[in-house]
Design brief:
- By secondary structure, this protein is α+β, with helices and mostly antiparallel strands.
- The chain has one domain.
- It contains three helices and 16 strands.
- It is globular and about 60 Å long.
- About 25% of the residues are buried.
Length: about 270
């Protein structure tokens, strides 16, 4: 029995050696793991190339209306990072909808939870407003998002944007305007009355950020500034005239359509800093 026990030891050592060699080879055959990156979006607001100043009648739009801006509140959602191979990454692991309020500095930054795979990306897109599928009434229970509700009679859900200010009307009187975008309505016979609504129009739109191609390396944290160029809400392709459209447009689908088409054109731009 003593001899048998003594002879088993070299065999045991040999087994341990080969097992260790197997796992060692397996590890060296695996490609080195790359750490995913992160993205932070910063939202800024400019007018005529300079940071937007509030509550001062210092701006003039393409129609010649003198105006000021009190506040801007809006949603962006469904941000997509488009890869060069044609696939895309949808930002939605923690939240798919971000609220921006010029009066609330904390909303001016969005630290995206989703991991960003290293690689080359062609462009960044997002939905301005909220898609029909996601724009559900009562999904926000706390302010400030809750206070963006869109009246149920007018389609429900939430505003895409409130851009509030004042303009110097052609009669010399300073009047308030509420440049609000959201779900539009179709009225029977053109009579603007909630009882004559026959359908609704989803006015949310996709923004393709110009010159937004980027590369992400292992472990990068990329900082993007998404800039709203406020004057472009009122020009290109349509010249927006406050004297023609008045102070409130929530029940004027043809006017909201003009605003959305302007917004899609060149209201937003982007720059990146690592």
């Amino acid at each position: 029995m003593g001899t048998h026990k003594h002879n088993s030891i070299p065999g045991l050592i040999l087994v341990v050696f080969f097992v260790g060699l197997f796992f060692s080879c397996s590890k060296t055959d695996e490609p080195p793991k790359q750490d995913d990156g992160k993205i932070v979006f910063h939202f800024t607001h400019y007018n005529e190339g300079l940071p937007l100043l509030f509550d001062t009648m210092m701006y003039s739009n393409a129609a010649g209306n003198g105006y000021l801006v009190n506040e801007i509140q809006y949603f962006i959602s469904d941000v997509r990072l488009h890869r060069q191979d044609g696939t895309s990454l949808l930002i939605d692991q923690w939240k798919a909808i971000h609220y921006v309020d010029t009066d609330i500095p904390d909303t001016h930054q969005w630290q995206v939870y989703d991991p960003i795979e290293p690689g080359d990306y062609d462009k960044i897109t997002f939905t301005f407003g909220i898609s029909e599928e996601k724009n559900q009434s009562l999904m926000f229970v706390n302010p400030p998002e809750r206070d963006m509700f869109w009246p149920e009679l007018l389609g429900g859900g939430y505003h895409y944007m409130k851009l509030n200010g004042k303009w110097l009307a052609d009669d010399g009187i300073i009047k308030p305007f509420n440049f609000h975008l959201g779900i539009g309505q179709i009225y029977a016979g053109g009579v603007v009355d909630p009882d004559s609504i026959t359908g609704f129009v989803q006015n949310y739109f996709e923004v393709v950020l110009p010159n937004s191609a980027f590369s992400s390396s292992s472990g990068d944290t990329l900082q993007f500034e998404i800039r709203m160029n406020v004057e472009n809400w009122f020009q290109n392709p349509h010249t927006y005239n406050h004297d023609e459209w008045g102070g409130d447009i929530m029940q004027k689908q043809d006017v909201m359509k003009l605003g959305c088409e302007n917004g899609k054109e060149d209201v937003f731009s982007v720059s990146m800093n690592k």
